[in-house]
Amino acid sequence: MLKFVVRRLLLLVPILFGLSVLLFVWLRALPGGPAQALLGERATAESVARIESLYGLNDAWYVQYWKFVSAAVQLDFGNSARTNRPVAEEMARTFPATFELAVAALIFAIGIGIPLGYFAARKYGSWLDNLSVSGSLLGVAVPVFFLAYILKYVFSVQLGWFPTQGRQDPRMDADHPTGLYVLDGLITGNPEASWDAIMHLVLPAIALGAIPLAVIVRITRASVLDVVHEDYVRTAEAKGLWERTITRRHVLRNALLPVVTVIGLQAGLLFSGAILTETVFAFDGVGRFIAEAISNRDYAVLQGFILVIAAIYVIVNLLVDVSYGLIDPRVRVR
Amino acid sequence: MTSTEPLLDVRDLSVTFTRKGGPTVRAVDGVSFTVRPGETVSLVGESGSGKSVTSLAVMGLLPRRGVQVGGQVLFDGDDLLTLPRDRLRDIRGRDIAMVFQDPMSSLNPVVPIGVQVTEVLERHQDLHGEKARAAAADLLARVGIPDPTRRLKEYPHQLSGGMRQRALIAMALACQPRLLIADEPTTALDVTIQAQIIELLKELVQDTGAALVLITHDLGIVAGLCDTVHVMYSGRVVESAGRRELFARPRHPYTGGLLGSVPRLDAPRGAPLHPIPGSPTDVLRWDRGCAFAPRCQNRVDACTEGPPPLESYAGRSLRCLNPLTESEEVSA
Ligand SMILES: Nc1ncnc2c1ncn2[C@@H]1O[C@H](COP(=O)(O)OP(=O)(O)O)[C@@H](O)[C@H]1O
Ligand code: SF4
Ligand SMILES: [Mg+2]
Q1: Whether A328 and B61 lie within 8 Å, measured CB to CB
Q2: Cα–chain-centroid distance for residue B190?
Q3: Pairing of strands B67-75, B78-79
Q4: Longest C-alpha distance within chain B, in Å?
Q5: Chain B positions in Cβ-Cβ contact with residue A254 (cut-off 8 Å)
Q6: pLDDT score, position A334
Q7: For residue B196, what pLDDT is reported?
Q8: Is B6 helix (H, G, I), strand (E, B) or coil?
Q9: Nearest residue on chain B to A331, alpha-carbon basis
Q10: Where are the domains of chain A?
Q11: Do residues B172 and B91 touch, judged by C-beta distance below 8 A?
Q12: Set of chain A residues whose Cβ sits within 8 Å of the Cβ of B105
C-alpha cells in the first residue's frame, strides 16, 4: 500500500512539470506578449517596458522558466497584479474558503445521492425511480450559474431564508484562525459564527453540488441494479440473512466501488463549478478570485493557482485510489 | 414412522417466466418429487432442462417480477411457496442450505471468507465474536481447508477454485441443515477437483444425516452417491427410479442417451461415447407431444399426437410411449 502511494506521489512530479511548461508557453504566446496582454491594447510603450523589466520578461526564455520553477517550488508565485499582494497569500486566504464550500457540496451530493440512487434501484420503475432518473438528467443539463441565480433569487432575495452573499455576516465579530469559518466558530467558542457560516454555505453548496449529485444518483442506481443480480447476493439470500445485512454488506459494499471513483472525478471538477458559484454568491474563494484574475489578466495569479489546483486534483485522485484499495481487496494485492 | 414421512415434498411445481414483449417460458412444468430425511436425490438433465429453476423455486430465490410459480413445496409440512418471507428467511440457511455452481461468483469478492461464514452463525445460531470465529475455523477445517484460521481473514480471490467451493460448502453446513441442495457443485471445477468435492459432499451428508438434492447434467457424478434419480427434460420429469435400477435398466430413451454419453469405468479404453444426437433446444412443446421426439430414435407416431403421461409402476415413473427394452439398452 505504502509503495503504491509513494509511486503515485512521484507521478505528481512529471505531471506538474508538464503543466508548468504548458502554462509558461501559453502565457508567453499571448499576442504582444504578457505585458501587452496585461496592460491592454492601448498601453504605452513605456508602461510595457516597465512591466517587462518588472517581471523579468526580457530575460532569455530558459532563464525565465528557471526563475518561475525555482520560485514556484518555494510557493513563491510573485505578486498579484491586481491586489499587489503575494499570490501565496491570496492562496492562503481563498483555498480554505473553497475547500469548505467543496466539502459542503460533496456532503450534500453524497448524502442525498447514494441513498436516492439506492432506493431508485430497489424500487425500479416506481415514481421515485422515474423522478430520480429525470432529475439527474436535469441536474447535469442545467448550467451551474443559472441554478445558482435561481436559488439565490428564490431562497435569498424573495424568501429571505438565506443570506445573499459572502461567507459571514460582516457585522459578526468572528476570528478566523484556520480560514475554515465553520471550524473557526467552533474552536474560538463562537457557535453563532459557525451557524452563520453554515447558512452562507447552504445555497452555494447546493448549486455546486447539483451536478455531482446527479452523477452520483445515476451511477449508484446503475451499480445497485447490476449488483443485486450477482450470484453472491443470491448466496446471501440463500443463507437467510436479514435484508439489512444483505444490503449493507453484500449489495452496497460492491455497488459503491464505481461510485467512489466518480466521487473522486467530481471532486476534482468542483473547482470549475466553483468559479461560477462563487461569483454568483460573492463567495470569497478560489473560483471567484480566478474569475477576477481572468478578467484582469492577472497572469501571476493564474499561473500559480492553476498549478496548485492541478496538484490538488492529482492528490484527490490519489486519495480516491487509496480508499478504493481499502474497500476492494482485489486492488490491494495487485 | 416419521422417517418415512418426506422432509421435502414438491408437488406439481411449475414455473413460468413472462417477459414484456417476449414469449412466456414454462421452465418447470408439473414437477413432483420427494426427499426423505437423510435421503440423497438427484435431478439430472442437460442444460436448460429446468433443474436450477426448480431448486431456486424450492428456496424461494426466484426473482419476484415476471415469474409465476404454481404447485406446492412442502417442507416439514409447511408450504414454502406461501410462507411469510420472514419465516422463509428463518428456514433458509438453517434448515435448507444451498451450494451453487460457480464458487467464484457465488462468494462476495470484497468480504473476507471468515465473515461470510460467521454471518450465517450470527444469523441463525446467535454465535458472535470469538465464538463465531472459532466455529467458522472448525467448519473450514471440517471441509478440508488447511490453515483455517489464516483463511478466515482471506478474500475469495486468494483461494483456489476447489477451496472456494469447500468454503461455500462450509457456509451451507454451518447450521447443520436437514436438507442441502447442491446445484452443479462441481461443474465449474477442474476434473481432478470434481471427484474430491463429490467425495466431501458424500462424507458430510453421511456424517450429518442431512438429506441431499444433487443437481447435475452428468450421470457419472450420480453413480456413487444417490438413492433416487429424477431425469428431467424440458421442464418435466421423464423418468424416476432408484439409482441402481436406473443405471442397470434405463427405460426412457433420453436416460439411455445420457448413460451412453457417460464414460464407463468398465468399458474398454477408447470405446466410443454416444452423445445424444441433436440439441436440447430442439424441443417440441409438451402440449403437442413428447418434447424429446425430435431427437428420439424410438419415436412412434403417437409420440407427436399428445403429451405422454407420467406412469408409475414397480417403484419407477416413466414418461414414454415406446420405452427401451432390455436388448436396446446395451446399444444405447
Ligand atoms: N430468469 C429467467 N428468465 C427467463 N427464462 C429463464 C430464467 N431463468 C431460466 N430461464 C429458462 O428456464 C429454462 C431452464 O433453466 P435452468 O433451470 O437454468 O436449466 P438447468 O437445467 O440448466 O439448470 C431455460 O430454458 C431458461 O432459458
Ligand atoms: S415418448 Fe416417444 S418420442 Fe418421447 S421419448 Fe418416448 S419414444 Fe421417444
Ligand atoms: Mg443450472
Answers
A1: no
A2: 19
A3: antiparallel
A4: 68
A5: 108-110
A6: 44
A7: 83
A8: coil
A9: B110
A10: 2-72, 87-331
A11: no
A12: 230-232
C-alpha span between B92 and B181 (Å, rounded): 11
What's the CA gap between A35 and A224, in Å, rounded? 55
- Quote the CA–CA distance of B293 and B303 in Å, as a whole number: 7
- Return the CATH fold of A87-331: MetI-like fold (1.10.3720)
B171 touches chain A (CB under 8 A): yes
Cβ atoms within 10 Å of A284's Cβ, excluding its own: 17
Ligand 1 neighbourhood includes B101 CB (under 6 angstroms): no
Atom of ligand 1 nearest to the CA of B49: 21
Average pLDDT over residues A286-311: 83
CB contact under 8 A, A329 and B106: no
Instruction: Specify the pLDDT at position A48.
Output: 73
Transcribe B27-55 into DSSP letters: EEEEEEEEE-TT-EEEEE-STTSSHHHHH
Pocket test for ligand 1, best of B14, B15, B17 (most atoms within 8 A of CB): B17
Could you tell me the domains of chain B?
1-95+176-332 (3.40.50.300), 107-174 (no CATH)
Element (H, E) at A132: helix A127-141
Please tell me the distance between residue A304's alpha carbon and the centre of ligand 2 in angstroms: 84
Element (H, E) at A216: helix A191-227
Q: pTM for the full model?
A: 0.81
How many Å apart are CA B276 and CA B273, to the nearest integer? 10
Distance of CA B46 to the CA centre of its chain: 12
Q: What is the DSSP string of B84-127?
A: -HHHHHHHBTTTEEEE-S-TTTTS-TTS-HHHHHHHHHHHHH--
φ and ψ of B35, to 5 deg: -130, 120
Cell of A205: 453548496
Chain B residues touching A328 at Cβ < 8 A: 109-110
pLDDT greater at residue A59 or residue B195: B195
Amino acid code (one letter) for A147: L
Residue among B88, B106, B154, B179 with most chain A CBs within 10 A, to mutate:
B106
Q: Give the mean model confidence (pLDDT) for residues B11-33.
A: 89
Helix (H) or strand (E) holding A326: helix A299-327
Cα separation, B64 vs B168, whole angstroms: 25
Strand partners of residue B15: B28, B69
Residue type at B251? R
8 Å CB contact of A330 and B155: yes
Give the closest ligand to the alpha carbon of residue B14. 1
Q: Which residue has the higher pLDDT, A169 or B160?
A: B160
Q: Is B25 helix (H, G, I), strand (E, B) or coil?
A: strand
Q: Which residues of B touch A329 (CB under 8 A)?
A: 109-110, 112, 155, 157
Amino acid at A275: I
Q: How many residues does chain B have?
A: 332
CB contact under 8 A, A232 and B90: no
Interface check B91 vs A, CB under 8 A: yes
Residue nearest to atom 17 of ligand 1 (CA): B50
pLDDT tens for A143-179 read: 788 887 888 788 877 887 878 787 777 777 777 778 7
Q: In this predicted model, what pLDDT tens digit does every residue of B109-118 receive, in sequence order?
A: 999 999 999 9
Convert the pLDDT of each residue in A3-52 to its tens digit.
777 877 787 788 878 888 887 777 777 656 666 666 666 667 777 777 77
Q: Where does B158-242 have alpha helices with state H?
A: 161-173, 191-208, 219-222
Please judge whether B119 and A230 are an interchain contact, meaning their C-beta atoms are less than 8 angstroms apart: no
A210: its cell numbers:
447539483
